[in-house]
Amino acid sequence: MSASLTINLKRASKVYHEGEIIAGVVVVDTSTDLRHEGLTLTMEGSVNLQLSSKNTGIFDAFSNSIRPINLINTAIELASAGKIPVGVTEIPFEMPLVSRPNAVGPGLLETYHGVFVNVMYTLKCGMKRSFLNKPLNTSCQFFVQYKPQERAPPKPVRCEITPATLRAAGGGTRANMPAFQLYAEVDSTVCALDAPLTGKIRVDECSAPIKSIELQLVRLETCGHSEGYSKDATEIQNIQVGEGDVCRGRDIPLHMVLPRLFTCPTTATPHFKIEFELNIAVIFEDDYLVTENFPILLLRSR
Amino acid sequence: MPVYYKWTSVPKQKERHDYPSLDISNHPLKVEVLNMKLGANKSFIESLQKWSSPFEELDPLLRFEQLNVENDIGPVENNENTINYPKVWNAKRTGILNKYTTGEKLTIVSSFLPGGEKTLLRQVSNLNEKVKHRLEQLDDFDESSVRKTMGLSQQEFVTKIHMLDDEIKKAWDTEQRVKAFKIAIQCSKLLSDINVMQFYPSKFVLISDVLRNFGALVYDRLKKKSFGNADIKLQDIDSSTVPESARETCQNWMFKMASIRELLPRLYMEMSLLKCYAFISKSEIKPTIERLTRMIRGIGNPLVAIYVRVYLCNVASNLFGKESECYFNDNLKEFLEEYQQIFSQNMAKKFGTQLLTADQYLSLYIPAIDWLLYGTLNYTECKHTLLEDMLQKCETTENSELLLCCCVCAFDSTNVIKKSTALLEIIRNQSDHMVLLSQVLASVGEHLCHAENYCQLPSEALSQISWKIATNMKSTASFLQVLEPWLQFACTQLSTQHINMILRGTIRYMIKCGKPAEDYCLQIHSVIKRMLKSIPDVEEVFLMDAFMPLVELVQSSNARTIMAKTVLTIFFERYNSVQIEDHIVISSLMRLCCILHDSINAVTVEDENKACAELINKFIHAVSYQDDLEQQLNFYVECRSAFIKLDAVLIALVHAVNALAARADMSQGRWLQRACAAYCFVTVPSLQCPLTKAQLYLLGGQVALLNCCIGQAETNLKTLVGLIPEIPQFVQEDGQNKPTHDKVVGLLSNFLSTLLILPDNMDSNSKAYILSGFIKTMERIHWRKTDPLYYTLLLRTLDLLCQMTQETYAYHIDGVLSNDELYGSEEEFIETIENHATNICQELLVVLKSLGDAKETKKQYNLALELFWRIVRRGKLQETSMTSLATNLWALAQKIQDSNNKFARALLSVLEKDQSAACRRLLDKINLC
C-alpha cells in the first residue's frame, strides 16, 4: 500500500513571467484506493537573506538570518475530502502568477540562487489524510523571469593594463614585475542575461610566459538596511579563455554564457541588492596575477 | 595349351597408308615466343582479380574495419563531386596511428579507471588556499577522486582510452549521463598534456574518437526524445518542431558545457555537441563554428591548438560536407597567423627535454596541416593562385620550412611542376637551416616525376640545383631519400649522360661520407629499383659506366644478392625485345647472375633456389650471338662453369645447347654438333634427378641422331639404358612425392621409337645392340610383374620388335642409315629380333598368369586383349603357334568377361572385316570357343 504525489508542470522549462498562468497536473499514483481529507496546492515565493559571519556585528551574531520576505503565497483546494481510485489519477490545475497586492518593491523578483540572497518559488501540494496516516506532501520549484525589455544600447569598455596602470591604481606591485601590455575590451557592460558576454583580450607584449587568462563572474550581494548591512563578493563562475603562453598581438575572444539561476537582473530593493562584476585575470607562469575589474549591469532583455 | 609359343612377325608388304595431309609452313610444336610485358602482365592480373572478386571472401578483420567505416559514413550521400571527408579522414587516421608511436611511458589522469595512485590535480585557479584545502578534503571522500596512472606503455594507454570509451557508454546506458559527461571532459583534458609529444597525434586520434562517440550518444538521445525512433537526418531537423522538453534538455547540455572551467575541454565538448544545436536553432551552428575558430586562439600551445582545429574541421565536415571547406580555410589562416608559435623558445625547450630532434618535432604538425590544406584546396577555385600566395608567404616568413613541406605535399603535381623553379629557389635559399630539407626536396622530386614529357621544363637546371642542394646534405639517409625521386626525374627527362653523372656523383658522395655503405643498403636498393622502373629503355642502365659500381657499392654478400636479384627481376620485367645482343649488357648481366649464383649455399631454401634459377634461365634464354654459333656455345660453356650449383640452370643449358645443335648448319662440318653433343653428355651426369638425366640423355641422343652423329647418339642412349634402374618410383616436386610412373612410360616409349632408327654398331657382335641391352636391363630390374609400367613397356617393346622386322621402317632420318637398310632384312638379324619377341611374349604370358593370381581381373583382361590384338595385327597368323596363342588369349578374355565389352567388340568387328585366309581361320576358331 503505497501512494505517491508528483507535480508536473505543463511548461518543461518551468519558467514563467508575472501575470501568466501556471498550469499543470498533480499526479496521484496509488496501489490501492486512497481515502483523503482534502488535496491543497500552495504557491510560495520568498526572498531568503543571510548575513555573512564576516560582517555581522556582535549584536547580530546570535541570529545571522533575517526573516524571509514573502513575495507570493496563494493556496487553492484541488479536491475536497474523498476517495482516489487505484492507479494513476491526474488532477489538472491552473494558478495565476500575481504578486501580493501589498508586496514590497515592484512585484515579483526573478528567481536567483546566491550565497546570501536566495529568491525561490515553489509549488507545494499536500494531501491531508485520516488520523493514522501521514499526510502526503510534494513540492516543485518553478522559475520566475521578468518580461524581456527592449535591448539596451551597448556600452563598450576598453582598457589597457600595464605595470604603470597597476601602479596608478595603487595596487600592490612587485619589485621585479615583468614588462607587459595587455588590451582588453568588453563589448558591453550592459548585458542581456540570455546572451553570452563577449569581448576580446590581446596580449601585445609580455616578457614573462603566461599560464592562463581567465574570466571571472562575481556577484556582489548586499543585505540589511541603513543600520547594519553586509556586502560580499563571491565568485559565480570562472571561465578560462587562454591556456598557456598565447600568441602575442592576437585578439582572443572573450565568451561567457551566463549561468541560469545563479544570475538575475541587477536588483536593488530596500532590503538587499544583487550586483555583478566581471574580472579579467591574467596569470603568469609564476602564479602572479593581474586582474581588471568591470562592473556590469545585467538585464532581462531580448 | 602349349607352354612355348614362337613369335613370328609378319612383314608388311609395302603397305602404304595414305593419311590425309596438308602442307604447312612451320612446325606445329614450334615455341611461340610470348613476351609478357609488365603492363600486360598487370592488366591480366587485374582482370583476373576483377573476375574473381565476387568469389573472394574478405579477410574477417578487414571486413569489420570496412563495416565500421560504412557505419560511420552511412547516411552521407555520395555525390560525384563531393568528397567524403569522413572517409578521407579515416584513411589519414590509420596513417597517423601507425606513424606516431612511442616507447616512452605515458600517463593518464582519470577518476573513472581502477588503480593508479591517488593524486589531486592542482588546478589553475585563484581560489584562496583555505577554500582549496577544504575542497581537497572533500575530494578525498568523494569516490570519484582523480587518479593518476603513470608508466603506461603505449598499448596500455590505448586500452585505457578504450576502457574510458566503454565506460562512457556504460554510464550512458545506466542513465548516469552526468558521469558520462565527466568522463568525456576528462578525456579531452588529456589532450592538454604534451608530455611524450611524439605520441600526441595518435593520442588526439584516439581521444577524438571517444569524444565523437560521446557526441553521437547525446545527439541520438535528443533525436529520440524529439522524434521517437523515426530515422531523421540532420538536414531535415526543423528546430521549431522539436518538442519543448527535448529542447530544454539540449539547452541544459549546452549550459553545462559552457560552464566548464578550462578552455580546452570546453572547446572539445562544444565541438562534440555541435550537432545538437540543431535542436535549438540550426542557424546557430555556423556562427558557432566561426566563434570556435577564433576561440582556439586562446590555446597557447601550438601543437594542442592545431589539433583542436583539426577536430573542429572534422566535426564541421561531418555536418556540412562540401560546405565545411570554408572552415578549413579559416582555420588554416588562423594557424598561419600563429605560425611562429611553433618555433617559440618555450616549445624548443619542451621538445628538447623530450629528446626529440627538430625534424621529429615538426613532423608532428604535418598530418594536421595536411588535413587543413586538404580542405582548403578543395575550397579554393584557383589552386595556382593559392600556391603562389603560399610560396610568397614561405619566402617572407621565417622558419617557413614546415609550411613549405606541407604545401608541396598537399598540392597537385601540375601546379607544383609549374612552380618548380620558384620552389627550388626558395629551398636553396633556406637550405642551410632547414631540418625538413630532405622531405621537401624529395616531395618536389616526386611531383616532378609525374611531369609529362612535353612539358617545357628546364629539367637540366632543376636537376642541377637539386643535386647541388642534395650533395651538401650532411646526412646520408636524407641524401638518398632525395636522390630517389630526383633520379627518377632524371631518368624520365634527361639524357643517359646526365643520369650517369648523377650515379657517379652518388658513388662519390657515398665514399666521401665516410660511413659504411652497408648501413644504407635498403635505401640504395630502393633508389636502384626506382631507377630501373622509370628509365625508358632498361638496357641503357648497363651502358652507364657508373651503374654496376653503384649496384655493387654495398659489399656484403647478402646485400649484393638482393640487389642483383632486384636488378635482374626488373630488367627482365621491363626488357622489351626477346634477345640480348649487346656484349656490355651480357657481361653485366652475367656478373649479376654470378653474384646471385654465388649466394647459394647448402642452407639456401628451395624456393630461393628456384627463383634464382628462373632469373638465370631467363638470362640464358635471352642471350643471343646471332649467327656466331661458336660464340654462343662458348657462352654456354662459360655459363655451365659459372652456374654449376643450380640443376635447373644446367637443364636449361642442355636444352639450349641441343637447340643450338639443331640449329647448326651441316655445311660447316659436324664439329659444332659434336661439340654440342659432347657438352650435353658431359653436363648431364652432374644433375641430381635420374629421371631428368634420362630425359636429357634421350634428348641428346635424338639431337645427335638428327645431326647424324651416330656414335654420340649411341653413347647417350646406352647411358640412358644404364640409368633406368636408378629412376626412383617417386620424385620430390613442390614438396610432394609424385609418382614417376607415367613419365617413365612416356620416356621409354619415346626411347623405343628412337631405337627404331638408330643404326646398329657394326663393331659390336650382337645385333640390335642397344635394344638387347634394354631388354636385359628390363629383366635385371625386379619390377613387380603386375605393375602396369612393366607390362606396358613389354608391349611397347614387342611393338618395336615387330616393326624392326619390316623391310622398310615407318620413318627415317635423312642421312642416317637405319637397320632396315643396314641389314636388308638379313635372316640372322630377323632371327635375333624374333627371339627377343618370343621371350617377351613369354614374359607377357607370365605376367598374365600372375595378374590372374593377384585377382587383378580387369588388368588381366585388358592385357590379354592387347596381346591378342598385337598377334592379330603384327603376328604371322599362318603360323599355328600364333593362331593358337591368339585363340587361347581370346578364350582367357572371354572367361573373365563376355565379348560384349566394348574393347573386345571393337577388335572382333575389325577382325570380321579382314578378308585374309588366316584371319578367317582365326575367327572360326574364336567362334568355336
TrEMBL record, chain A:
Keyword NADP: no
GO cellular component, one term: endosome
Quaternary structure and interacting proteins, as annotated: Component of the commander complex that is essential for endosomal recycling of transmembrane cargos; the commander complex is composed of the CCC subcomplex and the retriever subcomplex. Component of the heterotrimeric retriever complex consisting of VPS26C, VPS29 and VPS35L; within the complex interacts with VPS35L. Interacts with SNX17 (via C-terminus); the interaction is direct and associates SNX17 with the retriever complex. Interacts with SNX31; the interaction is direct.
Top-rank lineage group of the source organism: Eukaryota
Organism the protein comes from: Pararge aegeria aegeria
Chief location bin: other
Location in or out of the cell: Endosome
Entry keyword set: Endosome
Function in brief: Component of the commander complex that is essential for endosomal recycling of transmembrane cargos; the commander complex is composed of the CCC subcomplex and the retriever subcomplex. Component of the retriever complex, which is a heterotrimeric complex related to retromer cargo-selective complex (CSC) and essential for retromer-independent retrieval and recycling of numerous cargos such as integrin alpha-5/beta-1 (ITGA5:ITGB1). The recruitment of the retriever complex to the endosomal membrane involves CCC and WASH complexes.
Family stated for the protein in its record: Belongs to the VPS26 family.
GO biological process, one term: intracellular protein transport
Protein name (record): Vacuolar protein sorting-associated protein 26C
TrEMBL record, chain B:
UniProt protein name: Jg10051 protein
GO biological process per UniProt: endocytic recycling; protein transport
GO cellular component: endosome
Highest rank taxon of the organism: Eukaryota
Taxonomic lineage from the root: Eukaryota, Metazoa, Ecdysozoa, Arthropoda, Hexapoda
Keyword match Protein transport: yes
Protein localization: Endosome
Organism: Pararge aegeria aegeria
Keywords recorded for this protein, A-Z: Endosome, Protein transport, Transport
Keyword Zinc among UniProt keywords: no
Family: Belongs to the VPS35L family.
